[in-house]
Amino acid sequence: MKTALIFALALIPTFGVAQDYRIGDLMIAHPVARETAATAIAGAGYMTVTNTGETDDVLLEVRADFPRVMMHDTETIDDIATMIHLETLAIPAGETVTFAPGGKHVMFMGLKGDPFEEGETVPATLVFENAGKIAIEFNVEKMTQGYSH
Fold first, then answer.
1. Domains within the chain, CATH numbers bracketed
2. Residue 148 pLDDT > 50, yes or no?
3. How far apart are the first and last CA of the chain?
4. Rounded Cα–Cα distance for residues 64 and 126 (Å)
5. What is the mean pLDDT of residues 34-47?
6. With contact defined as beta carbons under 8 Å apart, do 70 and 105 qualify?
7. Rounded distance, CA 138 to CA 123, Å?
8. Could you report the per-residue pLDDT of 70-113, keeping only the tens digit for each?
9. Rounded to an integer, what distance in angstroms lies between the CA atom of residue 147 and that of residue 33?
10. With contact defined as beta carbons under 8 Å apart, do 72 and 43 qualify?
11. Neighbours of 95 (CB within 10 A)
């Protein structure tokens, strides 16, 4: 009975569900981008990166087919949020780094009238110092909690 249930669940389509990825000791979980307004010039991407190994790694860049792709962190001082450009991002051994609204995020800039729409994917490549390159897809999901990045 359990085997039949597991098999049946495996057959359920997973459209719109973010996929997890692995390269070396790194796990990239739930890469998502939020839908954008039709007039948006940029969109944001989020994920978690867990280093299960014993050696630190560094996310050197995120590549995608946009005029500019950058990693940012959000710093809030006196209720004013400012985006800080991150040249690289350390992924310490045994730790998880989270990209989330109001914190670290990937900015895809130059949408040029082609907004992110729920159900689409945004192909990208993560480039790590030690683990190397991995192609991933950010699944575009409906914006929640009022966040735009």
1. 15-141 (2.60.40.1890)
2. no
3. 45
4. 9
5. 95
6. no
7. 6
8. 999 999 888 888 999 999 999 999 999 999 999 999 999 999 88
9. 11
10. no
11. 12
Task: Report d(CA 39, CA 106) in Å as an integer.
Answer: 19
Q: What is the DSSP letter of 17?
A: P
Amino acid (1-letter code) at residue 81: A
Residue 13 pLDDT greater than 50, yes or no: no
- Residue type (1 letter), 119: G
Helix (H, G, I), strand (E, B) or coil at 5: helix
Cα dist from 59 to 38, 62, 134, 138, whole Å: 30, 8, 11, 16
Identity at 40, one-letter amino acid code: A
Q: What is the pTM of this model?
A: 0.83
SS (H, E, C) 64-76: CCCCEEEEEEEEE
Round to whole Å and give the CA distance between 17 and 30: 8
Closest CA to 90 of 54, 117, 128: 128
Quick check: 88 and 57 in contact, CB under 8 A?
no
| Number of residues that this document lists for the chain | 149
Hunting for tokens 């940012």 — which residue is that? 72
